[in-house]
Amino acid sequence: MEIKLVIFDLDGTLVDSLPGLAHAMNLVLAEEGYPLHPEESYRHFVGHGIKNLVFKALPEEAAREEALLEACHGKMLGTYGRDWDHALRLYEGIPSLLDALKERGIRMAVNTNKDQAITRKIMETAGTQPEETLYVGDTLVDVETARNSGAFCAAVTWGFRTREELEEGGVGWMVDRPLELLEILEGRKKTP
C-alpha cells in the first residue's frame, strides 16, 4: 500500500472548534430565550453540519417547528461566521504531522461536510486513486466518507467522538496521536 494523498477532516481532527461552535450556538439560544448547553454537550451535536447542530441544540418542541429551526440556523450561520475563531486551536502535534507529510511529498487536502462526489473530485484533482488515499477523521461520518469513496480510513481519538464510539463503527486504524499516522504511511502499523 502506497499512500499518496491524505485527506483530513477539519473540525475535531485538525482543529478544536468545539468552543467556538458552543459559544455561537449558545448566543443564539440566549437570544431566543432557550436554555444554554455546556460546551461538552456540543461534542454530541456536531458531525452532520450546522443545521443538524442547531436542531440538536434547540429544545425538542422548538426544533420541530421548521420556520423556527430555519431562523435559528440562519442566526447560527451569522454568529459563527462572525465568531468562528473563538478559542480555536490546532490540536497538539498537528503542525509537526503536516510538516512531516510535506517533507515526504505526500499530498494533503481538507474535507469538511462534503459528500462522495466532492471527495472523489478532491482525489481526481490530486491525481490519486482511492486506494492511494488515507482519509483521517474523528467521527463515524468520516469513516463513512472514506468507505464511500474507497479510501483507507484512520480515526483519531482526540476529536469529538470517543474511542468506543469509533470502534463500534468498525474503523480501520485508530490513531491516538498525530505522528502515529506516519506509522501507517510507513507500513509499521498493522493494516486493518
From TrEMBL:
Concerning InterPro entries, the annotation shows: HAD-like_hydrolase_sf, HAD-like_sf, HAD_2, HAD_sf, PGP-like_dom2
Q: Name the domain of life.
A: Bacteria
A single GO molecular function term of this UniProt record: phosphoglycolate phosphatase activity
BP term (GO), one: DNA repair
What keywords were assigned to this record?
A: Hydrolase
| GO cellular component labels | cytosol
Query: Could you confirm whether the keyword Hydrolase appears in this record?
Result: yes
Q: List the PANTHER family.
A: PHOSPHOGLYCOLATE PHOSPHATASE
Q: What is this protein called?
A: HAD hydrolase-like protein
What organism, scientifically named, is this protein from? Anaerotalea alkaliphila
